[in-house]
Prior knowledge:
binds iron/sulfur cluster
Amino acid sequence: MDFFAKKIIKWFKTNQRNLPWRGIKDPYKIWLSEIILQQTQVNQGLSYYLKFVKNYPKVKDLANAPVDEVMKHWQGLGYYSRARNLHETAKNIVIKYKGVFPKTYVEIRELKGVGDYTAAAIASLAYDLPHAVVDGNVYRVLSRVFGVKLPIDSGEGKKYFQELANELLPKKEAAIYNQAIMEFGALYCRPVNPDCENCIFNSKCVAFARQIVNELPFKSKKIKVTDRYFNYILFTTGQLFFINKRLTKDIWQDLYEFYLIETDRRQKPLEVLKVKELKNIIKQKGFNIEKVSKEYKHVLSHQHLYTTFYRVRTKQVPKGMIKVKLSEINKYAFPRLIEKYLKDENIIE
Ligand code: SF4
């Protein structure tokens, strides 16, 4: 087993990417980078990391920021619960730990939004504690090198891989080893087209020898995808727009949107504008529909959203909605789908 850690650390020392969070020991910045990089590629997350560190250099700066501002900085990165949890956790660290990031694995693991993987990453990278990380990269590398076919989405598989990762971890080099295995998975043992011919492990890799590289890691369940049909009514009067904040526990909580009518199937424009709930917020008869957009398909991990935007001019202010000047629309955090529509319509740049 020793060969594995030695080889991968050696590989890392000469092949690692130069990234702003490499080599730092500040647990706050490591936490930021780890949360940003969950479900996000490094290329995409990099500018967000720099933006957060610049705007909130210390955990108390993040804690004191208004939630709308934090969401705005997160706009476009997706999985918005991460931003809400970051903000809430920063506040808790200020209250419970007087602004000093907790130092033990157990305390770190208790922070909201921090799971086993993130706690192990912070504990090892910031404090050199001997905790092995297991993320998507680690599952891939270990399942292939050691030829493990247990499903990574089963309890048994998770337990097995965590134990294997713990066994492989050189206790005194936890920080560099954890970074090395994740970097190797990201750069070399990639999900598709891994460079097996030139790989440092190819003489020992079970998956390569048995030609089952593309079958590993194994997953037992397929993701169930739900189709949803969104109809956004973009009310305008003069230079004013009307928006709502999404407050329900659903996708995009705490982001802003136009008036939403969700239907169980694709609707014709006139059918949408006849729905009762719309009549409740605008009493006047005969809306002036200025424009109906093309249908946008927005793909999330578990949902496909089919969305049409209706621009409706009205003299009445829709009940309960937030009035926004066109020039100020950029201050609000919208989901990427709406941002795309606003750009397509030249409403924002
Ligand atoms: S030989 Fe291929 S599958 Fe095996 S560790 Fe190397 S890159 Fe991954």
